[in-house]
Amino acid sequence: MNRERFPGLDGTVRFDAPAGSQLVVSAADAIATYIRSPVANAHGGFPPSDRTDAAVAGARAAVANLFGTDPANVVFGPSMTALTYLLASTVADSVGAGDEIVCTRLDHEANVSPWRQLAESRSAHVRIAEPDPVTLELSVESVERVLSERTRWVAVTAASNASGSVPDVSAIVERVHARGARVVVDAVHAAPHLPLDFDTWGADAMFASAYKWFGPHGSMMLLAPELMQELRPRHLRGGPGPGVEQWERGALSFEQFPGIEAAATYLSETGLDRIGAVESELLDRLLAGLDEIPGVTVYGKPPRRTSTVLFNVEGHAPAEVAAALREREIYVWHGHFYAIELMDFLGIDGAVRAGLLHYNTADEVDRLLEALTALTRPGSLSAAGQPGGGS
Ligand SMILES: Cc1ncc(COP(=O)(O)O)c(C=O)c1O
Predict the structure, then answer these.
(1) Which of 345, 342, 16 is nearest to 159 (CA)?
(2) Which three-class secondary structure state does DSSP give residue 66?
(3) Which string of DSSP letters, residue by residue, matches 341-361?
(4) Does the reported pTM lie above 0.85?
(5) What is the pLDDT of residue 387?
């Protein structure tokens, strides 16, 4: 779908989407136009500076529209990881000795390490919500089970970047709030796949990164108005007053903003429901095909999921599988993808991940299936020249 709008699609098969997508042409063009024009820092009050202010405001409005909130709740930053550390350090005082923070087995380390480290620094405890060991569904009850009177924060993903599992975030937020704790949602993997509605969910904070959804490298933290009012991130004397700019700390990478605006607009205009329908057909084809290849283990069968599939091939290390696919110009990721909690839970060191986006095709899925079939054929040679079934 819309392949012609992605100039980075060069004929190679790109199933590396959970690590980053191709830019939509409108985002690439918008960045080029901005950066080829006279530029200036923000808030100067003359035309090139006004253009910078407009680029930031345009991106804030488009991101707010995409995620169902007000532009005044959208904080920009260099990466989700950096923004999560910023939030965790800013709320440190809200956590005392003996308090609890809940993380999950489905989360990327960027939504685990900052909270674990915060807990350690405050003599607080981390409790972990576990998914179903077979389906890898993270139920609302599994989160509720680890809540207590001492829970202060819950860090949960809107979709696993490894198994594709999609927890019911809205219901989780409701249960957590009923216990008086706060919820931080990692929407980095979910954003190019599902409609996300920050205000309706009522989450306290949510993170996303535009490079996963057809834009440039640049990320955002959505903060509920109550937290925006309450929290005071460390900032410079003489700097901006309360509000998003107090969190943004200095001159941002302004060049990214026309691209973020264009990418967010592309997603809103295309519609996540339409995108989801295309992805779901591709996913069904991939899962059915993998099921027929002997020696392939697919991890998880979550009822709600993205088009991201985690698997291993018997007798072949994940790196070897990825190398064999690379020989055929099929690009996938292998390793732990920072889904370290999930790897530990599954008892594996790593796996192969094929992540599909709406710009992929059935033909590309078939190329992947053919390549895996060839790899698992008895007597086949691995990319490294080792007989299949080696390392
Ligand atoms: C689910 C998820 N969360 C967080 C991150 C970290 O995002 P960033 O690279 O913007 O720090 C990633 C990156 O792959 C991710 O997939």
Answers:
(1) 342
(2) helix
(3) HHHHHHT-S-EEEEE--TT--
(4) yes
(5) 35
